[in-house]
Specification:
- Helices cover about 50% and strands about 10% of the residues.
- With about 525 residues, it is an alpha/beta fold.
- It has 2 domains: about 40-290 and about 325-350 and about 360-430 and about 440-460, TIM Barrel (Alpha-Beta Barrel); about 470-520, no CATH class.
- Strands 12-6-4-3-2-1-14-13 form an 8-stranded parallel beta sheet. Strands 5-7-11 form a 3-stranded mixed beta sheet, with no helix packed on it. Strands 8-10-9 form a 3-stranded antiparallel beta sheet, covered by helices on one side.
- This is Isocitrate lyase.
- It catalyses: D-threo-isocitrate = glyoxylate + succinate.
- It holds the Pfam family ICL.
Amino acid sequence: MSIYQSDLDALKRLCREQEGRWDNINPESVARMRAQNRFRTGLDIARYTASIMRRDMHEYDRDPSRYTQSLGCWHGFIGQQKMISIKKHHGTTQGRYLYLSGWMIAALRSEFGPLPDQSMHEKTAVPALIEELYTFLRQADARELTHLFRELDQARKQGNEVAARGVLEKIDNFETHVVPIIADIDAGFGNEEATYLLAKKMIEAGACCIQLENQVSDAKQCGHQDGKVTVPHEDFVAKINAVRHAFLELGVDDGVIVARTDSLGAGLTQKLPVSKEPGDLAHQYNSFLYTVPICSADDLDEGDSVIKLDGDLRKPLRLANGLYRFRSDTGEDRVVLDCINALQNGADLLWIETEKPHIGQIAGMVDRIRAVVPDAKLVYNNSPSFNWTLNFRQQVFDRWESEGRDLSAYDRAQLMSAEYDDSELAAEADRWVQNFQRDASREAGVFHHLITLPTYHTAALSTDELAQGYFGEAGMLAYVAGVQRQEIRRGMASVKHQDMAGSNIGDDHKEYFSGAAALKAGGTHNTMNQFG
């Protein structure tokens, strides 16, 4: 028996048991509303999506070609349209997630206005956006099921039982738009207790995966800017523990923690950890510092610190702001140590923030990590902060140069120039970009590829194109030809914006509640009918 039909039969029995008091309730209407509201709470979503993500991680371990992907979102509508488009073009949401970017919350969602990515935005904006994204994804479910229910009613009205059974099968096998969200908690917005409290709110809103970085919370910088300050390992592990406790307290046992290290580009630390014995984590952390030997008190200035490293007294270089500097050649070693320690202390996935998209660089670090933790996997930021065109043209140039090819037609320093766009080198670089995710997942352990802030750029680009035409010679044609006609030709749900906003769902509900007396919006004079 159909799952939908089974639920309907149970509701019919329930209504009959009320001895006439519920005669105004149509059991099928309730069955439809239940199907449209599969997830009752954010914790329902977090548990469901965590199980999906764990399954995908196991699949990747068996077959690295089964990597996953996501795009960053800053509004519920953006996330909703992504998942609708994925289902339309690819038939399934499997392996496709959403990413919630702290950068985009800071830049686009703060009540202070646009802010840099420095954890200055309201921490409450993070769980609020998670809740908003899932509200829009659940509404996408309701909208699509509304159309299926109407299709079922039409088949029944025509007496077409074959068509009706086919629609019932679609309803029973309906794939939700609700997918995992990897949610950015920055550096935790405070100490470990603050991290725990915010993580709870994020999980209660639906987050199954929380990404945490090893920067100092009150000195946090964007991963692709200068001035990053990292914390000792025990401080970071305390916050990993805080997030895990939040997951377990709320019953999300499969919750996923992404441990991000910014050590590759971070040259500073605020705190010298206490080493208890040679070779421990604190000793290793301190060994990366830029230090000078101390022979006597005369080698010290007022207020200087001294540490004992490998039997020698040494003075860490302290800057005017009180921060300590790491040696410039230690970045990759610190990344490897960060990652191994995070995985051994409760993290599930790694995020290594790099300065360029280079598979060899990533693989070199991952190989060292996997020598200790064989199933180590990465979430990798395919960042718009990289100049992808220039980086890959230079990588191809360097490869060809090492192979002894004639490169006299190219100037490596000017490869971004449009004059090279139709060149053989540019075509090869574009092939490398096209295959980057596939190759990085196979060769460098990348389980999940994301673009942190793509819709920041797509919104700016599409607005620029529309503004240029609409306020210029094209006038209204800029919108009609460049937007609406493209929506129609591409079969986009958004062209029927009234339906997308829930007008048909509301009409159905009015009919459920008021019967023939319902005042509905979707009648003959609704201009949405012009779109077929």
